Amino acid sequence: MINVDFIRVEMARQRLTQTEIVSRTGLSPNTVSAICNGRNTRISTLQTFADALGLSMAELFTPKPQEEPVAA
After folding, report:
1. CATH label of the domain that carries residue 45
2. Which of 24, 33, 48, 67 is packed most tightly, with the most Cβ within 10 A?
3. Cβ atoms within 10 Å of 18's Cβ, excluding its own
4. What is the distance between the alpha carbons of residues 35 and 6, in angstroms, rounded to a whole number?
5. In a domain, 20, yes or no
6. Helical (H) or strand (E) element with 2
7. Residue 70 pLDDT > 70, yes or no?
8. Cβ pair 47, 35 in contact under 8 A
9. Is residue 71 situated within a structural domain?
10. Which DSSP string corresponds to 4-71?
11. How far apart are CA 62 and CA 57, in angstroms?
12. How many independent structural domains does the chain possess?
């Protein structure tokens, strides 16, 4: 499953909007939105998206680290 939290954080860090990613990639706005919302997409499309963010494919799928439980 795509790590949408990571994608959102990375887009914010790079100050990229979905519209800017559309411009960089040539993907449709609906496709970029689908990726940002974790919907299934072709691998080649995900690669294009990852390239636009300067990320590897593995980073798109890296699970969020588990939070340490707070001691009572």
Report:
1. 1.10.260.40
2. 48
3. 14
4. 12
5. yes
6. none
7. no
8. no
9. no
10. HHHHHHHHHHTT--HHHHHHHH---HHHHHHHHTT----HHHHHHHHHHHT--HHHHHPPPPPPPPPP
11. 9
12. 1
Buried b (16+ CB within 10 A) or exposed e, 24-37: ebebeeebbebbbe
C-alpha distances in Å from residue 46, one per residue of 19, 51, 67, 72: 16, 8, 27, 42
Assess contact for 61 and 2: CB atoms under 8 A.
yes
Q: HSE (CB half, 13 Å, CA atoms) of 38?
A: 10
Q: What is the domain range of residue 10? A: 4-58
Note the maximum CA span of the chain.
Answer: 51
39, HSE (Cβ side, Cα atoms, 13 Å): 7
What tokens does 10 get?
Answer: 């990375």
35 occurs within a structural domain: yes
For 7-30, the pLDDT digits (tens) are 999 999 999 999 999 999 999 999
User: What local confidence, expressed as pLDDT, does residue 68 receive?
Assistant: 54
